[in-house]
Automatic annotation (TrEMBL):
Residues 42-75 form the DNA-binding protein H-NS-like C-terminal domain. GO terms for molecular function: DNA binding. It comes from the Bacteria. It comes from Paraburkholderia atlantica. This is DNA-binding protein H-NS-like C-terminal domain-containing protein. Coiled coil: none annotated. InterPro entries: H-NS_C_dom, H-NS_C_dom_sf.
Length: 108
């Protein structure tokens, strides 16, 4: 988004917040509450329905399990995926084909 569009959007949002009596603190509190709710999620389906694992199992999960799907399929990852390992560096200095037709793309 370019700077002019961004500034225009900020001005619009400030105007609407003022119009409805929303303070920045209210917005920050609402966002914090949403992030806490997201952290509590333990299972989620493709349409965004979620369950924290407490209380009665929701209907969407019961139906999926009765249809043969495992509950682990819907479980959210407890820990982040490991960082990818850096690729090994290849030493091309001793390449026997360097400078030959075999080293050129399309072998022309």
């Amino acid at each position: 988004m370019d700077e002019r569009k961004r500034d225009s959007m900020i001005a619009y949002l400030r105007h609407r917040m003022e119009e409805f009596g929303i303070r920045p603190e209210d917005l920050a509190a609402a966002l914090a509450t949403e992030s806490l709710a997201k952290k509590a999620e333990r299972y989620r389906n493709a349409t965004g329905d979620s369950w924290d694992g407490n209380g009665e199992m929701p209907q969407w999960l019961k139906q999926a399990i009765s249809a043969g799907q495992s509950i682990e399929h819907f479980e959210l990852a407890a820990k982040p995926a490991p960082a990818p390992q850096p690729k090994k560096q290849v030493d091309w200095s001793n390449d026997p084909f360097a400078g030959t037709r075999l080293a050129r793309p399309n072998n022309r």
